[in-house]
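note to self: the first set is below, dont mix up w the second
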Amino acid sequence: MARKPQQQRAKVRVDTVLQAAEELLLESGLSAFSIPTLAERLEYPRSTIYKFFPTPQALLNELAERQLGALEAHLTRQAQRHAGAKDWQDLITRMVHSAADFYRTHPAAQVVLLTGPVSDVSFRALESTIARLGTLARGLLATRGIDIPQGSPDIAALAVEFGTASLRTSFYLHGRMTNEYTQAAADVMQSFLAMRLGLPLR
């Protein structure tokens, strides 16, 4: 686990380390990522980084959690913007495109979130975020008079999971969010929700 900085000077240093870590990930990928390489790039003693991140996984977990928080905040803001969508399908499509736009403007998020979890910690953080985004989707559809029942399976979370899988495939195959896979993410979410909730598709 990462050690949280307490003093402002330490917080600034940790932010510098995380920013450099993102740059290194974008240049070299997960397989070449290491704290010694990061320390050399920053011209820091390795101990400076190990003080807060005892393992590479701890650092990557911190990056993933920060990106997940930014993604969730972005989609929550976008939900308000898309309130005027013409119907529930348009609403889902707009939200999926907003998620793809986030990944396009946060390339490090693609690496730490879409290439698979680096540890149990990041896996659980991702699934917790997907569950909360499912709750967001449930609330959005409720404004259209569509009730997603609670219980098992969690239909709302699964819809988000399926959409995320399409975006992950886009990154795997093309290294970016393509329009085709973004639309496929919207399509699979709509089809799943329509089948489970008995909604008509236009």
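second set (the one i keep forgetting abt)
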Amino acid sequence: MLLARLHGLRHSDAWLFGTMLVSACLSLAASFVLSVDALRLAADPGTSLSCNINAVISCGTVATSWQAQLFGFPNAFLGLVAEPVVITIAVASLGRVRFPRWFMFAAQVVYTLGVIFAYWLFSQSMSAIGALCPWCLLVTVSTTLVFATLTHVNIRDGNLFLPSRAQAAAARFVDADLDAIAVAIWILVLILAVVTKYGAALFG
């Protein structure tokens, strides 16, 4: 009985869009802080940021890399534009608004590109830059959660224009809560990757 209730709660609009809303708000807050830091660094490249903790946890090192301004402006500005759209979708959906199928499909495509970009930045921090930004890590995790909930909703509601067999398989996947398990494992893998690479240097 309890498992059935938990299953029903997790598949409810309140849980899905509530999770999407909280995650998008966290990402927006992180993007705002990163944008402010980018402007501070632009005004004074030698300024010390509050999250410059050690050689590994260093927002300044990440923010001054070319990867942090891939399009000629701070990447955080993209979050300031994208996350309010997600917040609007989540709030409206909690109010029982239903968006057209094409709109939700477009949102899925755009946010998928955003997640790919977030993980490219994460990989660059891990491999090329050699430093981590806590706010960037928060963006990575929060965008993962937004992507997961948005995908769940779009599969549930048949918004992805999948072939019938693929749609049925995807629906069974999310109905069995395998998507939640996959996300939990994925986030644990990210944590393990960071700890394995940097170890005690994270706290040095």
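remember for set 2: Helices lie at 2-10, 13-43, 59-63, 76-94, 101-129, 134-156, 164-175, 178-198.
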